[in-house]
């Protein structure tokens, strides 16, 4: 019986995305982390709503509150950061580690554990966001935004 033999992909897992896409992603994280560190929490607390989902529906998207949470966390107000979005400090820490690895020209971690962690974080974010949307729509969740 003949079997097709697949040649292994010579590229490591972390190189599947084009180099320019990784550079843009890292650059965006550098800008976001720098903005969180530079802008005082008061500057982002009373700003205009820029979330397209919230502008269209009036409901917070799963990521609503992350910007405010990052600003509070970057300035040491962890209780305020967790109150604005429970995943804010976690995602800020992940972004800071990624930025440091990029700046130190280290390879970003790849493989199953990183993919699993990414999927779990995305699932938790989605579950939290959907639950919050439903509760805000029912009027049983205090909407701080």
Automatic annotation (TrEMBL):
The lineage of its organism: Bacteria, Bacillati, Actinomycetota, Actinomycetes, Micrococcales. Keywords: Membrane, Transmembrane, Transmembrane helix. This is DUF2752 domain-containing protein. It comes from the Bacteria. The chain crosses the membrane at residues 21-39, 87-104, 116-135. InterPro entries: DUF2752. Pfam families: DUF2752.
């Amino acid at each position: 019986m003949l079997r097709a033999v697949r040649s292994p992909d010579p590229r490591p897992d972390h190189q599947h995305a084009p180099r320019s896409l990784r550079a843009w992603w890292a650059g965006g994280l550098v800008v976001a982390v720098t903005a969180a560190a530079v802008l005082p929490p008061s500057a982002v607390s009373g700003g205009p709503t820029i979330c397209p989902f919230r502008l269209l529906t009036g409901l917070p998207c799963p990521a609503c509150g992350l910007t405010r949470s990052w600003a509070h966390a970057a300035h040491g107000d962890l209780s305020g950061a967790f109150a604005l979005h429970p995943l804010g400090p976690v995602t800020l820490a992940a972004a800071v580690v990624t930025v440091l690895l990029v700046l130190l020209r280290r390879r970003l971690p790849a493989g199953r554990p990183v993919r699993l962690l990414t999927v779990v974080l995305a699932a938790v974010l989605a579950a939290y966001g959907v639950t919050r949307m439903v509760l805000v729509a029912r009027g049983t969740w205090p909407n701080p935004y």
